[in-house]
Amino acid sequence: MGVVKDFLFDNAYAVDAKGAEESVRSKYPGLLHADESIELAFKDRGGKGRDKKYFTTHRILIKDGKGVGGKRKNYTSVPYDTILAFSVQSAGPSMLDGDSELVIHSTGIAKVTMDFSAENVDIFQLYQLLNTKI
Predict the structure, then answer these.
(1) Cα dist from 2 to 11, 19, 100, 105, 120, whole Å
(2) pTM assigned to the model
(3) For 31-122, where are the alpha helices, taking DSSP H only?
(4) 8, 85, 92, 93: least buried by Cβ within 10 Å?
(5) From CA 3, how far away is CA 117, in angstroms rounded?
(6) pLDDT, tens digit, for every residue of 75-123?
């Protein structure tokens, strides 16, 4: 039930960061800086979606597939030094509240909200990462 719910509610699953970096560097060679690496990687829709979130050494990079086939891409880059505040919300005990949430407030970009699977993602790992970067 968890994977189905995560797919329906568009919750992100953790994926291998090293594999994600290799894929990004081969498919989109200019997207990452030469000295930038992906520390945490996530894929939406319970790991089956086309949208991705990367927490790199320099920024948060959000890839949003657009259109019917997902051929159009929208990239949002949030450098860590532009983040003013963030909050995390852990999942509740019920089946209806099975996602964790990260909200980021930064200069130049409206509030960014990300939902993560409570079964697959440790929201406090993201909390610790952001604490070290900001």
Answers:
(1) 10, 24, 13, 29, 10
(2) 0.83
(3) none
(4) 93
(5) 9
(6) 899 999 999 999 988 766 555 556 788 899 999 888 888 888 877 888 8
**What whole-number distance in Å separates Cα of residue 116 and Cα of residue 2?**
12
The rounded distance, in Å, linking the Cα atoms of 21 and 112 is 22
Amino acid at 41: A
In angstroms, rounded to a whole number, what is the distance separating the alpha carbons of residues 125 and 116?
12
Q: How far apart are CA 48 and CA 7, in angstroms?
A: 7
Two tokens, residue 95? 């089946």
3-state secondary structure of 47: coil
Q: Within 13 Å, how many C-alpha atoms sit on residue 50's CB side?
A: 12
What does each C-alpha distance from 95 to 92, 103, 113 come to in angstroms?
Answer: 8, 22, 21
44-73: b (≥16 Cβ within 10 Å) or e: bbbbebebbbbbbebbbbbbeeeeeeeeee
What are the residues whose beta carbons fall under 8 Å from the beta carbon of 28, sequence distance 6 or more? none
Residue with structure tokens 């291998």? 16
